[in-house]
Amino acid sequence: MSDTANSRPWLGPLLLLLGGLCIGLAPIGLRMGLDTMGPQAIAFWRYTFAIPMLFVLLVGIERRMPKKITPLIILAGTLFALDIALWHWALTMTTVANATFIVNMGNVCVGFVAWLVLKERPKPIWFVAVAVAVAGAAALSQGGGANGQADIRGDLLAVGAAIMVAGYMLFSKMSRNTLGAMDVIFWLTVTEAVVAGLVVLASGESFLPETPQGFAAPLFLALVAQVGGQGLIIAGLGRTPAAVAGIIVLIQPVFAAGLSWQLFGESLTILQGGGAALILLGIWLSQGGVKRRRQTASKPSQAEVTNRA
C-alpha cells in the first residue's frame, strides 16, 4: 500500500460507505423499472450503459487504454452477474429489506474467508462488530412489506446471491493486487454484461422495454449503482481490509429499507429501526477490528489487500 493510503486510513472506509449508499439505491431503481422491463434485462442494460461511461473515465483520468483482463476478473465478474441475477429475481418475490439483508450476509462472510486466504487476521473487537451488525441486519429484515410480499422462494434466491457476492468480493480484491481500480471495474462490467446477456436469453425475457422510457431505470442503475456504487466500493476495498469492508457495506440494507419505507410502503417497525441502529454501531466498531497492514508489513504472510469498486 502506498504512503498516501497509509497516511489517510479513513479514506478507504469513507469510499466504501459512499459506495454502499449508492448501491442501496439499486433495489429502488429495479422496482421502478419492472413495469416496462424484466429484472434480468434491467441488469443487462445496467452493465451495458456503464461500459462506455467507465471507458471514458478510464481514458480521461488515466490517459491510457485499459490493461489486459485477467482470469480473476472474469471469475469475479461472472459471480457478480449471477449474484445480481439471483438478487433481482429475489426482489420480485420478497421485500427489499429481506433480500438486501440476506445478500449482505455474503459480505460479512468475506471477512472470514480473507482471514484464511489473505491472512487478514481480525482483532477480537471485529467479532463483536460482526455479531452486532448481523443482529441488526436480522432485526431490520423482520416485519415484511405492508402488502405481505415476503416469500421463502425469494429468500432462498437471496441466499444463492449471498454466496455469489462473497466470491465476487474475494476475487475482485485479489485482482486489485495487479490492476488498478479503474481497470478492474471496467473489465468487471464488461464480463458482467456478457454473462447478463446469457442470463436474459436463458430466462426468455425481452432485451428491449415496452417503451423507450423503460431505459430510464437501467440508465439510473448504470450511473448510480454500477459506476458510482461499485466503483467506489472497489476503490475503497483497495485501502480497507476485507473484514472491515464487509461490515461497512451493510449500510446498504439500512439505506434501502429506509427508502423502500417511503416509496413502497414497506414500513419500518420499532424492531427494524433498532436493527438499523445496531448495523450503524457495528460499522463503527469494525473500524478497529483488523490489524492494519502497515503495522504488520514485516510479516511476509501479510499480503497487501487492494480491491475493487
UniProtKB/TrEMBL annotation:
PANTHER family in the cross-refs: ACYL-MALONYL CONDENSING ENZYME-RELATED (PTHR22911), EAMA DOMAIN-CONTAINING PROTEIN (PTHR22911:SF76)
Organism: Henriciella algicola
Signal peptide: none
Domain EamA: 11-140, 153-285
Phylogenetic placement of the source organism: Bacteria, Pseudomonadati, Pseudomonadota, Alphaproteobacteria, Hyphomonadales
Any one of the GO CC terms: membrane
Any single Pfam family the record assigns to this protein: EamA
Protein name in the entry: EamA family transporter
Source species, domain of life: Bacteria
Classification via SUPFAM superfamilies: Multidrug resistance efflux transporter EmrE
Matches recorded under InterPro entries: EamA_dom, EmrE-like
Transmembrane residue ranges: 12-30, 42-60, 72-90, 96-118, 125-144, 156-172, 184-203, 215-235, 242-264, 270-290
UniProt keyword annotations, A-Z: Membrane, Transmembrane, Transmembrane helix
Keyword Coiled coil in annotation: no
